[in-house]
Amino acid sequence: MRYGVCTWILGDMPIDEVAQRLAALGYRGLELKGDLAAYTPARLRPLFAGLGLEVLSITPENVDLAHPDPAVRREAMDYYRRALAFAAELACPILSCHGAVGRVRALETQQAEWGYLREGLATLAEAARLAGVRIALEALNRYESHLANTAQQARALVEGLDAGILLDAYHMNIEEADPAAAMRLAGERLFLFHVADSNRAAPGCGHTNWPALFGALREIGYAGDVVVECTASGPDPFTPVKGPGWQEELAAGLRQALAFLTEHLGPQT
Predict the structure, then answer these.
(1) Catalytic-labelled residue, pool 138, 175, 176, 249
(2) How far apart are CA 36 and CA 78, in angstroms?
(3) CATH architecture of 3-265
(4) Which end of the chain is more exposed for a tag (fewer CB within 10 A), N or C?
(5) How far apart are the C-alpha atoms of 266 and 220, rounded to whole Å?
(6) How far apart are CA 55 and CA 253, in angstroms?
């Protein structure tokens, strides 16, 4: 098990500085923001290797696989195909996907858009298999997406496909009656686990029942990675930039998160 950090939570910090900071803090990996125009695998590979970092996953740009307009869906699929090739070049094992973040209601019908997402996932899963990458559908809370909010919904969407699920403790705090039971329901389909506390601060700074969640991880035999996605305190959940002092607060949170994970889940392997 390796511990990593979502790079988007560091805002517009250059990737070289992001990598140096995470390595200095003691993290083994990162979840790379899927801005395919910002960098190339040829540039990133030596940077990360020199710092002892690995790309654990890629989080996508905000494209919409479930939009009623076929042209929008084709554009989203084109992005994901390019992201798969990018991930394969980086030897990144997981590309995550989800509905368009910030679109919280159907433009057509819920049933129709569920079908569009399922169709897109089926195409992506096959493309990912050929690329040697795994697809993980992330369950987001209702204030960020209207499609897959719970582990049960995510599992239904990937059932029968060569794809898995990404669960996030912060989102589960909002959507799941029993987050630990949700993790058990995900079971072998749980490909990746994001951690932030109930208030999106570092683990241990809110009211999340971490012993229950970590116990569920052990119960299902989870052998994947854990990625930290906490932010500094402040308004607007769609940006990590919270005002004066946000970088210092985030750095303290990342140090605390790594110490917390090491204490409760053990050292990185």
Answers:
(1) 138
(2) 12
(3) Alpha-Beta Barrel (3.20)
(4) C
(5) 17
(6) 21
